[in-house]
Structure formats: structure tokens, C-alpha cells
Amino acid sequence: MTTTLLSTAAELHARTRAGRRAVVMTMGALHEGHATLIRTARALAGPDGEVVVTVFVNPLQFGAGEDLDRYPRTLDADVKLAGGSGADVVFAPAVDEVYPGGEPQVRITAGPMGERLEGASRPGHFDGMLTVVAKLLHLTRPDVALYGQKDAQQLALIRRMARDLNFGVEIVGVPTVREEDGLALSSRNRYLSPAERRTALALSSALFAGQDRHAAQEALRARAREVPATRARAEALSAIGESRAAADAHAVATAVPGGPSAVRAAARQVLDEAARLDPPLVLDYLALVDPSDFTDIGDDFTGEAVLAVAARVGTTRLIDNVPLTFGAAS
């Protein structure tokens, strides 16, 4: 399809709109993860709607010593990928189009959630992110905006901003896209040498280890719930040699530490081993949090959670996460 490249909000506002407008916000250097977002946006917008992909490297999101200048700019390739994935428009404004008066005096503040994990490692990052997202939502005027779940804390903050400040837009999260070896797709992956990439695989391996431990625990809890506390059932279990299995299931279901603590421990073991590799993985954080506020969860927690990790390999900082649900209904 033909994709139109625009650089001003006036050009975008002049377009005739028949159906829903879906927006995918990016900083360029598009890859298959972005393509998945765009294809999902196309499906949500429908044949009569419009998909807009923004490409803007936001200077407010980069702190001292971060990679604003080395961040890849590949606009021609981005337009090609966006068009091939179903975008009608690529909106690539200059800095003075988004911030016509220079750095904004008034900004969105992320609050306490923005000071945890990524916010603690990158002070001010989420204030800059929310400020530009708010600006781009106003400039593009979408009905729905899509963001990747790989940036789980970012997604949670955008949802909270939209709710708290009454933005009239639907916020949709799209699952993380991974390469064949499990590494989450990121524009920063291109900075990794072959040896660094091998070490970087520990991020997803740690998450999968925690995920596997969680799945095993939940399966045992489910099994425990299926074993009635009756003499007849106990005798039947004993007769077929399952009495120990039933006991183990009940033990796991009530064990402390267990649940979240065991999930953290399984992931931590993989990361500790990666710290001894050459080159080593330098852990920033491993956290198991409530996605509503990104605070750590305890072993009595039930509901949705996010297991998140951030680390450096060489000079490249990477993040990843997986969603988990504790205490699923029987």
C-alpha cells in the first residue's frame, strides 16, 4: 500500500478521516516487533480506518550519558517497513514541531510509579516519556494507541496517565515479540557483538526459568485443590501410589517461602550464572511486581504480576519481562 510521509501536525489534521485512527508510537529503527504493533493497529482500525506510525527520537527520554546521539535514525527503511505492515501514514516531526518553544516548561510527572525500577535507574526518563506521549496523542488525535508489553512499566504509566487525566483514547498493549533464540526484539540489539548477544540471552532465559517454576507451582496447587479431604479418596490415592504426590501438592500449595519467592529464586540463579560469563551480564534489577503500581509482591499475593529484568552487557542496556498470574481460579 502507499504510505504517506508527513512532518507537521497541520498536514495530519488536514487528512479526511472516515473510520477509527490507530496510532503506533516509535522512535524509529523499526523491526518486527514494531511491525507486529502496526499489523495489530491495522486490524483494530479496520479497512475504513487509518493507521499512523509516529517516528520521533524524543530528547527528553535520554539522560546524561545515554545514547541520544548514537540512537539509530533509519527513516527511509522505517517508512518501507511501516507501509509493508499496513500503515497509512508515517508522522516524523522535527524536534521544533513537537517542542516549538524549546524544552517544555510544563511536563507530565510520572509520580511514585515512575520512580521505581526503570525510573530509579534512569531518573526523569518516565517524565520525558509521558510528556511526549501526551504531546503525540494531542498531535495525532487517535481513537486507539498501541504499545508493546516489552516496555511493561511504560505501558502501565501510559494507561495510568490516560485514566488519571481523562485522555479520550483506548490504550492497547501488544505482547512482546522475540527472536528465534528468545531475545526480545529491540533496536538496541544491533549494538551487541556476537559474544555479548550470547550473554544477553540470559535475560530471557531467566524469565523463562521463573515462568517455568511458576507454571509448576500453579499446576501443583491446582492438583491440590482437586484432592478432597475424604477417607475414601485418601485410600484410593494410596492404592494407586499417589498419596505422596497429593501430599507434595498440598505442601507446595502452602509452602513459605514459595510462590513469588521461588519464582524470583529460579530467575536469579540464571542471572547469577550469567554474571560469570565473558563478557559478564551486569544486573540492574530483577523484580516481581504488581503491574498496577510496580511495587514488589509478597508470597501471599494473588492476581496478575510482571517478572521484569534489566541488565547491561558491554555498553548496551536491555530490559525484558513476562506476565504471570498467581492463584488462578480452580
UniProtKB/TrEMBL annotation:
Pathway: Cofactor biosynthesis; (R)-pantothenate biosynthesis; (R)-pantothenate from (R)-pantoate and beta-alanine: step 1/1
Residues given in the record as beta-alanine binding sites: Q61
Claim: Cytoplasm is one of the keywords in the record: yes
Protein name per the record: Pantothenate synthetase
Gene3D superfamilies found in the cross-reference section: HUPs (3.40.50.620), Pantoate-beta-alanine ligase, C-terminal domain (3.30.1300.10)
Superkingdom, taxonomy of origin: Bacteria
Binding locations of ATP: 27-34, 148-151, 177, 185-188
Complex and partners: Homodimer.
Keywords assigned by UniProt, alphabetized: ATP-binding, Cytoplasm, Ligase, Nucleotide-binding, Pantothenate biosynthesis
Pfam family, one: Pantoate_ligase
Functional summary from the UniProt entry: Catalyzes the condensation of pantoate with beta-alanine in an ATP-dependent reaction via a pantoyl-adenylate intermediate.
Further information: The reaction proceeds by a bi uni uni bi ping pong mechanism.
Cross-referenced PANTHER family: CYTIDYLATE KINASE/PANTOATE-BETA-ALANINE LIGASE, PANTOATE--BETA-ALANINE LIGASE
Localization, UniProt: Cytoplasm
Residues annotated to bind (R)-pantoate: Q61, Q154
Annotated organism of origin: Streptomyces africanus
Keyword ATP-binding tagged: yes
Main location class: cytoplasm
Active site: H34 (proton donor)
EC number per UniProt: 6.3.2.1
Catalysed reactions, as listed in the record: (R)-pantoate + beta-alanine + ATP = (R)-pantothenate + AMP + diphosphate + H(+)
One annotated GO molecular function: pantoate-beta-alanine ligase activity
Protein family per UniProt: Belongs to the pantothenate synthetase family.
Record lineage: Bacteria, Bacillati, Actinomycetota, Actinomycetes, Kitasatosporales
TM spans (from-to): none
HAMAP family assigned: PanC
